[in-house]
Every structure is written in structure tokens, then in C-alpha cells.
Amino acid sequence: MPDHRAPSDCPVCGEHLVVTRLGCASCGTELAGIFAPCEFCALPASDLEMLRVFLAARGNLREVEKHLGVSYPTARLRFTGVLQRMGLAPMDESRAEPEASEPSREEILSEVASGALSPAEAARLLS
């Protein structure tokens, strides 16, 4: 199975794309129509992994923290980011409940050094 993800937005006008054709890789059968979108399919691999870990931990962020090797505030921020990208949490941080324990700059840099956090994610957290 290819590891390519279908785009979710039109490269011409920017509107959301709809799935109109499905095909079987085994026998070549094709189905055409307008199908409901998969809200998980557009998520990057890191978000899907976060969801898998969260589900395996039965929603316990302390277990997610241990599995990912990050601090609790970082695990919570990552999960909030997934929720935001899925449209399940407000994108405007001023409307979100205040974080009492956001990770410090030192914690973030330490997690980048250990490989638990990507430089891009660290940059986002530090901005």
C-alpha cells in the first residue's frame, strides 16, 4: 500500500476536495460516487501516532507521556494540537482554557535534544 496521502484541499481554488473514486488494488474494481471524507486521513503521521498512543493508553495522558518520553505538558499540548487540526478544539489560544503548566523553554529544548520532539514542533511551541 502506498504511503502517499491524498490532498484535502484543491490546489487550484483551495476548497475542500471530495472522494469520488475508490479502487481495489487486487482486482482493479473501481467505484465512483461522492463518498464521505475520512477526517483522520488528512492528519500527518505524527498526529496519527499520537492518536494510536492515546487510544492504547485508554485516554490516560500520563501513559501517553511515558510512551512518548515527553513531559506531561508536552503530551497535553500535542494532543490539543491534534484536536485543533481535527476541528475539535478552538484554534484561538485566547479562547482555550489557560495552561497552568506549559513546558518551559528548557524542557522543550531538552526534548528536542533527546529526539522526543521535532525541531519544527519545538519552534511552534516556542513561538
Automatic annotation (TrEMBL):
It holds the Pfam family Zn_ribbon_DUF2089. Residues 10-41, 44-88 form the DUF2089 domain. Residues 92-108 have a biased composition (Basic and acidic residues). Residues 90-127 are annotated as: Disordered. This is DUF2089 domain-containing protein.
